[in-house]
Specification:
- By secondary structure, the protein is an alpha/beta fold.
- The chain is built from 7 helices and 12 strands.
- The strands form 2 sheets. Strands 1, 2, 3, 4, 5, 6, 7, 11 and 12 form a 9-stranded mixed β-sheet that branches. It has a 3-stranded antiparallel β-sheet with strand order 9-8-10.
Length: about 260
């Protein structure tokens, strides 16, 4: 069973990517590594990948996450059984590939494999999907009987799933993962939680960025949140109130020094 890892990098050298370094330092590595480059400048990633035998594809600018994912899959479809999606700043543990292979073989009826992802002191994935927000958990037991969702980074999916699915390109960056998990629930596609695998990631909302950076990020988030909420049939007034709450939080918590 072959594992392909797709890493989407944005304005960063692969040399500085925690994802690249931790994956390739592991004893058991993925069979294929594909770098999808959303950078707006040249960071020398094409040459870096060529020197290491990694596959490289430039999106010629920041095309968004959904478009990068959709462009990536045809490049690896014929050579992989499991697709792992990853951001460029995720710390993968030594046991990731080993545990993934064991889980895929032990649970042949499951098609999505989810590790725990930790940001700071809390788990951010997997979590419970609410109507207007997600609810974190501290153990897999809390997910029993609940609508489960998860973030992209570290998620592994059987390649056959993508024979019937493409990511929604009206979503630029956020809720792409939750939209996919929502589709899986509708299609009765089942998942397995790899309880012995914990990834670490710095979640943007857990930091205290400068106000200007936070507002720029909020602009992307708000557009994607409105799009996703509309797909789910959510009340647009409550959606707007949720966004207002986030906007107020920026004004209260973010550093005004630019």
């Amino acid at each position: 069973m072959k594992i392909s890892v797709v890493i989407v990098v944005y304005n960063k050298s692969c040399r500085d990517s925690l994802t690249c370094s931790t994956l390739m330092q592991a004893t058991q590595r993925p069979d294929y590594l594909l770098i999808m480059d959303n950078s707006t400048e040249d960071y020398g990633n094409a040459q870096y990948c060529e020197e290491r035998g990694w596959q490289y594809y430039s999106m010629k600018g920041n095309a968004g996450l959904a478009k990068a994912y959709n462009a990536a899959f045809p490049l690896i479809r014929e050579k992989t059984d499991l697709v792992v999606w990853a951001d460029d700043d995720t710390v993968f543990p030594e046991n990731y590939c080993k545990e993934l292979l064991q889980s895929a073989e032990a649970h042949p009826d499951d098609s999505v494999f989810l590790p725990f992802v930790q940001s700071g002191a809390r788990y951010i994935s997997p979590c419970i999907a609410g109507k207007y927000r997600v609810y974190p958990v501290q153990s897999a037991d809390e997910l029993e009987g609940k609508p489960v969702t998860a973030i992209n980074s570290g998620m592994a999916v059987r390649a056959s799933v993508y024979d019937g699915y493409r990511y929604d390109e009206t979503l630029f960056l956020d809720y792409i993962d939750h939209d996919f998990m929502r589709w899986c629930r509708i299609q009765k596609i089942t998942f397995h939680i790899m309880q012995n695998v914990i990834l670490k990631q710095s979640f943007f909302s857990d930091s205290k960025p400068p106000r200007k950076a936070a507002l720029s990020r909020y602009k992307i988030f708000s557009a994607d949140f409105r799009t996703y909420s509309k797909k789910c049939g959510n009340n647009p007034i409550i959606t707007g109130l949720q966004l207002l709450k986030n906007r107020v939080r920026i004004e209260i918590t973010c550093d005004r020094k630019e």
